[in-house]
Amino acid sequence: MTCLSDEGSGGGGGSLLLETFPRRLSIKGESMEGYLECPPERVFPVYAMGVWRPESESVVAVSGSGDPIWDAVREEAKLEAEKEPILSSFLYASILSHENLEQALGFVLANRLQNATLLATQLVDIFYDVMTNDKAIQHAIRLDVQAFKDRDPACISYSSALLYLKGYHSLQSYRVAHALWKKGRKVLALALQSRVSEVFGVDIHPAAIIGEGILLDHATGLVIGETAVIGDRVSLMQGVTLGGSGKETGDRHPKVGEGALIGASVTILGNIKIGEGAMIAAGSLVLNDIPPHGMVAGIPAKVIGYVIEKDPSLTMKHDASRDFFEHVAVKFKSGRSTGVQDLGRNNGSA
Questions:
Q1: What confidence tens digit (pLDDT) does each residue in 208-221 have?
Q2: What is the pTM of this model?
Q3: Which 3 state secondary structure label does DSSP give 236?
Q4: pLDDT of residue 316
């Protein structure tokens, strides 16, 4: 394995690594001797090495069959380590060396968001402290990863969502920032928001309220404003904006009902209500309330039908049937023709 140079290693992190990672590791009973032929501080970038020293009374002990999501993540990581030995060190550091999902997630997020002045070791402590003391977040991070696994066909495993999907990373970073915001630590919450925006291209204000079982598919260009509210089981595609309609203050952002499906590059402006189970077609501009299970499209968006499914966000069907749209097109064309004829008659009689 290629060793990293000492340059830029940050000094004191190396001794912590020696305490954390043995020179001889095993996965599923198989020796990994040789994977750490170099000192551990050179195998892993020091910025990536969060060292967990939580207080025993604050740790949520989640292991074994008590947490099927975490069990699945670990098993997937073990299998991937066997298939791709070059990733063994990465998988061990990110997943297999940790005791629960909270630890692993905090480690991954800290590595993604760290920079020269906001160190990974500091972020690790922040993420872990918040997640292990907030049962709502513990519940949400599991429902969210299940949502990614179930609804995103590109998400091949629970571990891939945890390790690679920036939609999941940005959503969980928001959850920590939101908890900090509620505790009055607003400056730190805004600092996290800023880093998430820089690293992932996703801007979610920490004061926004977002439910559980959320999918941010691709997530690039997503903007969620300060007073926005998103219900449970909502799916949002890339480029979605939940914004205000001007310079007004106070409650000024959209409220999205449970089970809604919002297509790519949709813009929703103002303090308006998107009904439960609504579906908004890609590229639409929404300026008015949408009824529950309403299907809307266009600029500005108009209701073109109603969704049969209770939660279109779960089925992820972004388009209606061909017959439906042919029917809408015929009605639209007929309406335009009638309007022109009526206008002509009116002009003729004037």
A1: 999 999 999 999 99
A2: 0.74
A3: strand
A4: 73
Euclidean distance between CA atoms 222 and 203, whole angstroms:
6
Query: Structure tokens of 8?
Result: 């830029």
Neighbouring CB atoms inside 10 A of 3's CB total 11
Rounded distance between C-alpha atoms, residue 276 and residue 96, angstroms: 39
In single-letter form, the type of residue at position 255 comes to K
Q: Which residue has the tokens 């999918």?
A: 215
For residue 123, give both structure tokens: 């972020």
Give the C-alpha separation, 84 to 77, whole Å: 10
> In this predicted model, what pLDDT tens digit does every residue of 295-312 receive, in sequence order?
999 999 999 999 888 888
Q: Give the distance between the most distant pair of CA atoms in the chain.
A: 94
- Whether 45 shows a pLDDT value over 60: the answer reads no
* Residue 104 near residue 162 (C-beta atoms within 8 A): yes
**Residue 63: pLDDT over 50:** no
Q: Sheet holding 241-243: strands in order across?
A: 203-204, 223-224, 241-243, 267-269, 285-286
**DSSP codes joined into one string, 237-260:** -TT-EEE-SSS--SS-S-EEPTT-
- d(CA 60, CA 57) in angstroms, rounded, equals 8
Angle, helices 101-113 vs 135-151, to 10°: value is 80
3-state secondary structure string across 254-305 = CEECCCCEECCCCEEECCCEECCCCEECCCCEECCCECCCEEEECCCCEEEE
Identify whether the C-beta of residue 318 lies closer than 8 Å to the C-beta of residue 281.
yes
Phi, psi of 310 (to 5 degrees): -65, -45
**Do residues 271 and 254 make contact, with C-beta atoms less than 8 angstroms apart?**
yes
27's tokens:
């996965």
Asked if 50 and 17 touch (Cβ cutoff 8 Å), the reply is no
Question: Does residue 124 come out as left (phi exceeding 0), alpha (psi in the -120 to 50 range) or beta?
Answer: alpha
Q: In the block, which residue shows the tokens 């009605």?
A: 331
Nearest alpha-carbon partner for 295 in 322, 313, 269, 277: 277
Quote the CA–CA distance of 85 and 144 in Å, as a whole number: 29
